[in-house]
Amino acid sequence: MNSKLLVKLDKILLATRNRDKIKEIADALNNLNINIVSAFDVDVPEVDEDQETLEGNALKKARELALATGLPALADDTGLEVEALNGAPGVYSSRYAGAGASYDDNVNKLLTELEGVPPSRRQARFRTVMAFVYNDTEHLAQGECQGLITETKRGEQGFGYDPVFLVPEQDKTFAEMTLAEKNNISHRGRALAKMVEYLRGVAQPG
Ligand code: ITT
Fold it and tell me: Among the residues of the chain, which ranges form H helices?
């Protein structure tokens, strides 16, 4: 389904209602010279994220919004997989502490679940799957970032689980990094770098 046809890409719809993701994605797409609109700018249906994989949910979000608007749509589904919790919260990361949970609720639940787990057993990875859909063209890109879950929150930037996700090589949590620093090494930044390369290949100049 990976069409080689060139498409005229002057506008992309970001198929997300998460403003923090929009900020990071818009920054990474900045030099593509494409107008970016989001689910806050156009009338779009709510998408039920009922798939069991990040790939499934990302494709579902992009397909439904592309169909509803006629615009090329780019969706992001992200999960935090913690080794000591057998990969949880994973695809359920946004509702780990229950439906409607806040970022803080989810982080607090994670820290509680990991109470007593020593630093040597707190490995985790973030994984993002991005899906691009336009008519019958579909493309997926994945990015991962390995880290450790801290025992207490550190830093004020970023969002979600960022205050407890430590990148050992930098001795910083994502919440202690600027947006550019995070995008440079993060799961989303890596998925976006691959997606940007793909989009450059299919976009018709002019
Ligand atoms: P959309 O479905 O509208 O895109 P969402 O917030 O529901 O937004 P996800 O289903 O991908 O997005 O949920 C993933 C959750 O994981 C998200 O709500 C955050 O709590 C967290 N998350 C995602 N990306 C993150 C990041 O880069 N840093 C920290 N936490 C992140």
Answer: 19-29, 54-69, 103-113, 179-185, 187-202
Contact indicator for 62, 79 with CB cutoff of 8 Å: no
Of the candidate CATH numbers 3.30.70.890, 3.90.950.10, 3.30.1310.20, 3.60.15.10, the domain formed by 11-202 belongs to 3.90.950.10
Domain ranges of the chain: 11-202
Per-residue pLDDT tens over the stretch 64-88: 999 999 999 999 999 999 999 999 9
Catalytic residues: 77
Does the Cβ of 21 fall within 6 Å of ligand 1? yes
Q: Which ligand 1 atom lies nearest to the CA of residue 165?
A: 29
CA angle 27, 128, 93 (to 5 degrees): 110
Q: Is the CB of 94 under 6 A from ligand 1?
A: yes
Give the predicted TM-score (pTM) of the model.
0.95
CA–centroid distance, 191 to ligand 1, in Å, is 14
Quick check: CB of 174 below 6 Å from ligand 1?
yes
Closest ligand 1 atom to the C-alpha of 182?
Answer: 27
Structure tokens at 110: 């994670």
Q: Which atom of ligand 1 is nearest to the CA of 76?
A: 4
Would you state the pLDDT for residue 205?
60
